[in-house]
Specification:
With 353 residues, the chain is α+β, with helices and mostly antiparallel strands. It is built from 9 helices and 15 strands. Pfam families: Exo_endo_phos.
Length: 353
């Protein structure tokens, strides 16, 4: 009897040491890559831009792709065209055609369980929010693909430009309260409030990701440390959308990995693009207009973890109407060939266990 007990204990010890090692547990974890990209009018602005979008999806090996600036031009179906082009290259993705009221879309390597827009008409001026449910590696994911109101772009005020007309101001506006009041004339904060209310009606066991082009900076970027950088001109601004999502329990994936906005600004707009003339890429040519306005947010739950995130796009940047060499510690995934957009994109990797 004693020998059997000793043998049993030895087997248990072997199981703990060799089967449940961190290395073995890590092998069981599976990655989920989320690629967020503003495709600049479906890639129609950049020569061969649509083909470049397909190249980037394949090159980055994305499991889920969130698109902004979908137009379905000339009665074409952007999602259908993307799926067919990927299939021709041996890549199988799933997606549903976007409705006329939307300028966002989502495709995935996994079947779409359910999808619906939050706003069904364009006259709300709230931007677009598409809600998609997908089961990935036996975990329920809920995605909100967003492209928010582009008007009243108040981050241009301290840079000496009007946020509505994009014309140069006589004097920059640097008062944080005045900037916030101008910003709230847009409908971005209302859209995020609606999104948070919608989330409150959902199953709390889902892993929730909010991704897209917000057309608004983050309060995590306009801080005391950056007030004298990037033409902020002393302004420390509590940008609404990022604060609302933070209060709702969401984490900004980029700032989670790179909390220092000085060393890792993570700018996504405007992006340098060697295929385009500089005057097509900048809206405030005498200013440092760079900001982070594209995001991947997530709500922590269970065993799903953020593994990493990188900026996707050319390393070069645009400052005062000119293309400059990389001037930060940001790590980039550079384009395979042509870069299809005036934004940089994001690729976040989550681990599912």
């Amino acid at each position: 009897m004693l020998k059997k007990t000793t043998l049993f204990k030895s087997l248990i010890a072997f199981f703990i040491l060799f089967v449940l090692t961190p290395e073995a547990m890590a092998q069981k974890a599976k990655d989920v890559k989320v690629f967020q990209i503003n495709v600049w009018q479906e890639g129609t602005i950049v020569p061969n831009g649509f083909d470049a979008i397909i190249d980037e999806i394949i090159d980055k090996d994305a499991d889920v792709v969130v698109f902004s600036e979908v137009r379905n031009y000339n009665n074409t179906d952007f999602v259908k065209r993307v799926l067919e082009s990927l299939k021709e290259k041996g890549e199988i993705y799933h997606g549903e055609s976007s409705e006329p009221s939307l300028d966002v879309a989502l495709i995935a390597k996994f079947p779409i369980a359910d999808q619906e827009p939050m706003y069904k008409t364009k006259d709300t001026k709230m931007g677009s929010i598409l809600k998609t449910k997908i089961n990935i590696h036996n975990k329920d994911f809920l995605f909100y693909s967003v492209h928010l109101d582009y008007t009243n772009y108040a981050c241009y005020l301290p840079r000496g430009y009007d946020g509505v007309t994009w014309k140069k101001l006589d004097t920059p506006i640097t008062d944080a309260n005045a900037i916030s009041m101008a910003n709230r004339k847009g409908r971005r904060d209302e859209a995020i409030e609606d999104l948070i209310k919608d989330i409150d009606t959902e199953n709390k066991e889902q892993f929730i990701i909010v991704a897209g082009d917000f057309n608004e900076p983050s309060h995590l970027d306009w801080t005391n440390e950056t007030k004298d950088l990037f033409d902020h001109r002393g302004a420390i601004v509590p940008w609404d959308c990022s604060i609302l999502l933070q209060h709702a329990g969401f984490k900004d994936a980029f700032r989670t990995k790179y909390p220092n906005p000085v060393t890792h600004p993570g700018f996504t707009f405007p992006s340098a693009n060697p295929a385009m003339e500089i005057n097509k890429l900048t809206w405030a040519p005498t200013a440092d207009e760079r900001d982070r306005i594209d995001y991947i947010y997530f709500k922590p739950i269970g065993s799903i973890r953020l593994k990493g995130i990188k900026v996707v796009g050319p390393e070069e940047t645009i400052v005062r109407g000119a293309v400059k060499a990389k001037d930060s510690k940001d790590r980039f995934l550079v384009p395979k060939k042509t870069w299809p957009t005036d934004h940089k994109a994001l690729l976040a990797t989550f681990t599912v266990q």
